[in-house]
Here is the input.
Amino acid sequence: MTRIPDRFSAASDLLKDKTVLVTGATGGFGKPLSLALAQHGATVILLARNLRMVEALYDEIDLAGYPTPAIYPMNLEGASEHDYGELAANIESQLGQLDGLIHCAAILGAPTVFAQSDAETWYQVHQVNLHAPYLLTRACLPLMSRSEHASILFMIDDKPGAYWDAYQVSKQGLAAMAELLAQEYADSNLRVNCFNPGKTRTSLQLRAYPAADENEQLPSPQDHIDTFLYLMSDASNENGEIFTA
Here is the structure.
């Protein structure tokens, strides 16, 4: 497990001239992260399924005077391989570059005893949490390979023990995929890392532990922003690491 350097401080222009794609851009992590990336100079591609919410986030970024973001509404559950190829082509034609890719989108499913799990939920969770990151990353690799300093970040989670069903399996698969990519792109312009923030006050956390007494005392996504900023910046050179809060 790795942490960002204690000396790191995010300058206001840390991500100037960078283009970063965030999935789940209107979610618990995605929204504050997208705002922070834009605040520090990045052109952010906001990928989320709810058009109204992503338009509101676009307006918030625009009104703050940050670099104009791009909107890309997409439902990861139903997206096909062709859809991801089209997304990458649109990024190339409209923005010309992609320097960062952050996989924030995730669903919990219905944690249960394995023998009582249902196939529909299993497929749905894996489609969003594992298959979508695979297809999107693969589609974006040619464009990211042309960036001087590119970074892919997978958000993972560790739910040890029984009953976490498809969620736990999908997140473990995501970590394995990140490790594979990091090894294949070692000594290149592309860095691939994971971030496990631990328990954080998000809607997914509240669904997973609805009666936990500690929920109100947990850190917020905003408390983890520096990790994202560091890993998207030229200050970082780590590859194949799992970062923690």
Notes: The two ends are 10 Å apart (CA to CA). Helices lie at 30-39, 51-63, 81-94, 119-144, 165-184, 203-208, 225-232. The first strand starts at residue 19 and ends at 23. The chain has one domain: 19-244.
